[in-house]
Each structure stands twice: as structure tokens, then as C-alpha cells.
Amino acid sequence: MKYKCFGTGSKGNLHRLSHNERYVYLDAGLAFPRFKESCGWQLDKVDFVALTHGHVDHGKCFEDIKKAGIPTISPPIDDWESTQTEFEIGDWKIKAWDVEHDVRNWAYLLYHKPTKHKTAYMTDFSYTKLVPATVDTLILEISYIDDIIESKQNELGDRYLRLVKYHNSLRRAKELLQKMMDSEGYKLKNLIICHLSDRNSDAERIKQELFELTGIMPVIADKGTEVELT
Ligand SMILES: [Zn+2]
Predict the structure, then answer these.
(1) What is the CATH number of the domain that holds 11?
(2) What is the pTM of this model?
(3) Most exposed among 17, 120, 184, 196, judged by the fewest C-beta atoms under 10 Å?
(4) How far is the CA of 114 from the centre of ligand 1 (A)?
(5) 55 CA distance to ligand 1 centroid (A)?
């Protein structure tokens, strides 16, 4: 299983898992021509695209993808009663769950049957009820570091509250990872951190603190980052 990042953060989020030339995309936050380019203009290689939520930096080309006939999964925004949160597409079993954001937002658990590889993707959230304890790979937002934004509350104004209420921080990431480590079946091997804010985070510090906690050296995702998932 391979991971590639085509974009992350406010400029647009597009992540890909691939195995034997079959592709799964997480979010669709780039323009459609760039999406097509990312799969070598071979849309038939895409098994599905899973959208977390409708903000433009995540969903910019989602409608184009749907129109192109590619299978998609997204939270039923107009239908809170919908109970379907488990899906099966090709070689994949997918489970979605609600996480706290300012619009309805799903996190995903993705199980690839042939390789038994389990991945979770969690972005743009401040709280998750479910802890994906037994994944091999975690792709996780850390938008900001708590003490960095606490030290400039006045300068950030409303943005401060937005970050705290709707985005994930280093402190919360460590709490989540600690819960995972305390759970039965914990086996995390690949930790990919995405959606860093330019001004309110610090990639080196995130790497160091998460390495100290988990013993796994995290990869900070940026455009072009590729990881061979073990
Ligand atoms: Zn968002």
C-alpha cells in the first residue's frame, strides 16, 4: 500500500492510497484538471473518492468527480437521519463516523481486504467519539500547536476560537494517540500528519513530540509526499 499527498491545508486537500495501480482518494480539494492529472488521466483506475465535508478546500472537484461516474462516499448533509455509515466498494470496506466541525464532517476507517491494511483519515475536527485503535496507518490533521495560538489570542481574534472549536491540535493529537496506545490491538506503524497551518504550527516540534510519545517518526504531509506503508 502506498500513500501520496497532492495537497493539504487551506490550499486544498487531496490524499491518495494506492495498491497495484488501483487508487482511492481522500478528499477532493483541488481543481478537477489537477485531480485528473494526479491519476494520470486514467479515471477508471479510481475505486472511489471519500469526502470528509463540503468546505471548498476539501470538496472543490467533488461534483466533477461524481459527474465523471467515479464512485463516491460523503456525509449525507441533507439527511441527518441516514444511518448508513458502512460501505463496501471493490476490495475495500469503509466505515465513516461523525467528528466535530462547523459542518457535518466524517472521519474514515478504510480496510483493504487483500492486504488487510487498515487506514484512518481524520481531518478538520476538534472531537472524535470513536478512537481508531487498531489501524496500521493514521492520516491525522494537526492544524496548530496549542501554546502557539494561546500566546497570540489577541492577534488571531475570531480565528483563535475557530481553531479551538473546529480543528485538531498537537495536544489533542497526543491524547488521541495515547488512547490508541492504551487500547487492545494497537499496532500503528505509519503516522502521517496533515493540514498544518503555516503560522500556528511547527513541523519539527510535532515530529519530535509525537516520536517521543509513540516511537514512530511521523511524516509531515505536503504536496508530493509519498510513503510506502508498512
Ligand atoms: Zn473544514
Answers:
(1) 3.60.15.10
(2) 0.96
(3) 184
(4) 32
(5) 5
